[in-house]
Here is the input.
Amino acid sequence: MEQSQPRAGDLSWRLSSHPITLLFFLGFRISSLFIYLFGSIFTENFILVFILTILLLAADFYYLKNIAGRRLVGLRWWNEVDAASGDSHWVFESQDRSGSVESGAPSQNATDRRFFWLALYAQPALWLALAVVSVITNGYIPVIALILTITNTLAFSRCDKFSQASSLASSAMYSGGMAKSLAGGLFGRFFRG
Here is the structure.
């Protein structure tokens, strides 16, 4: 029996234009979930599991925001604060990745794009399921994970000018919607005196 060759867009890291970036991106995304779910098998020290999970989530947030998003799909986002007024301004940037001869831009790799968007939306969904379970057990790790992963998910959805989720991210970030209410409610509860 002859094996078929992988095609562009298949979920095979070997087809990636940036395989090292992709493997680190997936490694950070998977490792935080793995440590949270199975860390208690290796140690009974909850503090160690908590710290490792938070460090891996922070590394994932940084790597996704500053490296993987730019290299895999050509998207970046950041927040600028006007020094004079103190107003916060979100900046979303999308690199032309059409591959057209006129633009001179490289084309976007279909495999990188599929891995990126699948992992971007799957991780918050998994953390949301774990947050629902943790309500019963009074765990806070999934709540922190949700804040970090949803922030990146909303921001990158906003960056992608062709994404159908762009309008959802815009309304959530600019109209005082879901993200503002979620963050305000969670942080308010933790820091109230």
Helices lie at 19-42, 46-73, 110-137, 141-159, 166-174, 178-191. Residues 25 and 68 are 6 Å apart (CA to CA).
